[in-house]
Design brief:
With 252 residues, the protein is of the alpha/beta class. It folds into two domains: 125 residues, Periplasmic binding protein-like II (D-Maltodextrin-Binding Protein, domain 2); 86 residues, D-Maltodextrin-Binding Protein, domain 2 (3-Layer(aba) Sandwich). It contains nine helices and 13 strands. Helix 5 links the parallel strand 9 and strand 10. The protein binds arginine.
Length: 252
């Protein structure tokens, strides 16, 4: 009788420890990195409509590679570009990759990895009505809210008296241009190609030599991950994989 009871107690303990074991194993599996992005920026990050609602692109593949190398499962959160840095600060995401320039201003509040790409500003207009900066005098110009292009537009505002229309999504700014509610939009040459290919009514030109900073991954200020991310990014570059990712999306 006593033996039976001891066995019962033992088996409860055993089941308990097995369960505990299973729990801690689960904890391990849960090592997740949450990436924030603004999926309105093909070929860097965009929703592959042919493939459900999947977010794909150069940045996504870079992040997937880094997460894999560092042993994390990757989760992607799509949000407005302007919300990325606040989301980092409030721990809603672990890092942001969104064709984001590592600007001095942003560096005050977040960490950046080394840069992995350099783009230039690009002015796109309807039927190419705007062919040089001077043509912008008194015109209405669309930009993405919180972007470097918005900052640039503010400079042009002083110089040429343009009126700025900022939108949360790049696609919305371009939509305004197509509907002729703005005269031009400032985007980047890296994403302009896609729009020009799809919209024969749009034309544009690149602003040479005004982009000092390149794209980098943003992490929380003083994050321990920054160093690891840099190492993973370096490996990606040295192995030639980074180049392959770029080729895959730019030649699409
Ligand atoms: N490179 C610009 C910036 O850093 C624009 C980036 C916009 N990215 C995006 N996924 N919409 O401000």
């Amino acid at each position: 009788m006593l033996k039976k009871q001891i066995c019962k107690v033992l088996s409860i303990i055993l089941v308990g420890t097995t369960l505990l074991g299973a729990c801690s194993k689960k904890e391990e599996e849960k090592k997740v990195l949450v990436m924030g992005t603004s999926a309105d920026y093909a070929p860097f990050e965009y929703v592959d409509t042919a493939n459900g609602e999947k977010i794909v692109g150069i940045d996504v593949e870079i992040a997937e590679n880094i997460a894999e190398e560092l042993g994390y499962e990757l989760k992607i959160k799509d949000m407005d570009f302007n919300s990325l840095i606040p989301a980092l600060k409030s721990d809603k995401i672990d890092f942001a990759i969104a064709g984001m320039n590592a600007t001095e201003k942003r560096k005050k509040t977040v960490d950046f990895t080394d840069t992995y790409y350099v783009a230039s500003n690009f002015i796109m207009s309807h039927e190419g009505h705007i062919t040089k900066l001077e043509d912008l005098k008194g015109k209405t110009v669309g930009v993405q809210l919180g972007s470097v292009q918005e900052e640039y537009a503010k400079e042009l505002e002083k110089e040429y008296g343009i009126k700025i229309e900022a939108r949360n999504r790049v696609s919305d700014a371009v939509q305004e241009l197509k509907a002729e509610r703005v005269d031009a939009v400032i985007i980047e040459d890296s994403v302009s190609t896609g729009y020009l290919e799809k919209n024969s009514d749009l034309k544009g030109f690149k602003i040479e030599g005004d982009t000092a900073e390149g794209y980098a991954i943003a992490l929380k200020k003083n994050s321990e991950l920054t160093k690891e991310f840099n190492e993973a990014l370096k490996n990606l570059e040295e192995s030639g994989e980074l180049k392959q990712i770029f080729e895959k999306y730019f030649n699409k």
